Each structure stands twice: as C-alpha cells, then as structure tokens.
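Intended use. Records such as the Cupin domain-containing protein entry shown here are meant for training and evaluating sequence-to-structure methods. They are not intended to support clinical decisions.
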Amino acid sequence: MKSEARQAKTPPALTAKIVRASAGHVAKQGSVYRSGVSAQSVGSSMLWLGAISLPAGRRTSAHRHKGHETALLMTAGQEIEIWSGAALERCEMIRPGDYLFIPAGVPHVAVNRSTEDAEFLGARNDPAANESVVLMPELDEIVP
C-alpha cells in the first residue's frame, strides 16, 4: 500500500509545506514582521501566520487593516498598551499569554513602554505578507 502511495504523483500545491524562520522586515506601521505562512511563502489563499514584534520603548503608527481581521497571542515581553476605537478612545493592557482580536477596519495603536521587546504570534485572513495597512496620521497625536 505504501509503495502505491509513493508512486502516485501528488501536485506540489496539495502537499504540506515547511517554512523556515527568516529575517523580519519593518512594516509601515512600525512593528517588525517575520512571515511564516503567506501567499508568498506557500501559496496560501486565505491565511497569514507569522511572528510580530514591537521593540522596547516603541509604538506603532495609528492604523487599521482594511478588510482583514487580526488575531494575536502575546508570547514574550512585559505588558503593552493597545489603543483602539474610532478616536483611539479605549486603552487596554495586554500581557504574555493574552490573546488579542482586532476586527477589520478598527483603528489601533500598540505602545511598548517597557524595557523588553514584545513578541506575538499573529494570524489574519489576508494571505499577503505585506497586507493593506491604512495609516491614520490624523490619530497619531491622540496616543502619548
């Protein structure tokens, strides 16, 4: 049975793929992205999965993800602030072990006032490694 399965030619698109860790890039909102599963790396059509970090003492620019939901798990660092809402009126603290969901189109800013880099495992329903982020400079001065 095994030899018959080995002889069958499965198209590469229908096999599992391993993605090795790679160097990251600074996204236009200011966080560091290290893509894992994406359209570019494996031909994903609906999912992006990767690592995201926010260096100590840094913050993202005010932005939203047009049409894309984001889910995050904070894996390392100290607590950071997540500001969200139409006028960034809500501020909550996220700590290692916490999950965060950001609905599509919701303006947000992440602020890392700690002395440690914050690390996240992130997923979104957009397979592009460089998703369509919409910067919102008119909101940047709201968050100190």
